[in-house]
Design a protein that fits this description.
By secondary structure, the chain is mainly alpha-helical. The chain has a domain at 60-165: Cytochrome Bc1 Complex, Chain D, domain 2. It is elongated and about 95 Å long. It has helices at 4-32, 60-65, 69-75, 114-118, 125-133, 135-138, 152-165. This is Cytochrome c-552. Pfam families: Cytochrom_C (PF00034). Keywords: Electron transport, Heme, Iron, Metal-binding, Transport.
Length: 167
């Protein structure tokens, strides 16, 4: 039953809700959008003319020479979710026993991505360093979703660890 009083209550409720909404919006604008009056209380000075010292790149062979296989075993924990260290036992990725100086894409029984299968050469320490830094940049199209190891010391430690496993 829709009579005049019900219609009046409904229209009054809608108008009241709209009024609360508009007043709430106005109050929020006043609270959070204040105008700046005067100058800042403090100023942070920045020297634009000063040159930044360049970081000297260290040769990877030098870093690899001082790498620790023990620290590399700790870094390998990041890899152990997908790779195994037992020869012939593949996980999501190929086994890594003897990977240093092994032909790329040469593990029997593992289905490599087309990118890695078509790569030629061996997994030298330098190649592994480039791949471990960012696999998607070294081998675009690889199915390896690992983001990479940013620190050159971690990569060198991991390569030293993997090299120590092979007889």
């Amino acid at each position: 039953m829709l009579d005049t009083m019900t219609f009046t209550k409904l229209a009054g409720g809608i108008c009241g809700a709209l009024l609360v909404l508009l007043l709430g919006k106005w109050m929020a604008e006043e609270l959070y959008h204040t105008e700046s009056h005067g100058e800042a209380a403090y100023v942070i000075e920045v020297d634009d003319g000063e040159e930044v010292a360049e970081v000297e790149e260290v040769d990877f062979a030098t870093v690899l020479a001082s790498a620790s296989a023990e620290d590399g075993s700790k870094v390998f924990r990041k890899c152990s979710a997908c790779h195994k260290l037992v020869q012939g036992e593949n996980g999501v990725g190929p086994y890594l026993y003897g990977v240093v100086d092994r032909d790329k894409g040469s593990v029997d029984g593992f289905s490599y991505s087309d990118t890695l299968a078509s790569m030629e050469g061996d997994w030298t320490a330098e190649n592994l360093n480039g791949f471990l830094e960012k696999p998607s940049s070294y081998a675009p199209g690889t199915s390896m979703s690992f983001a990479g190891l940013k620190k050159v010391e971690e990569r060198a430690d991991l390569i030293a660890y993997l090299a120590s496993l092979d007889d």
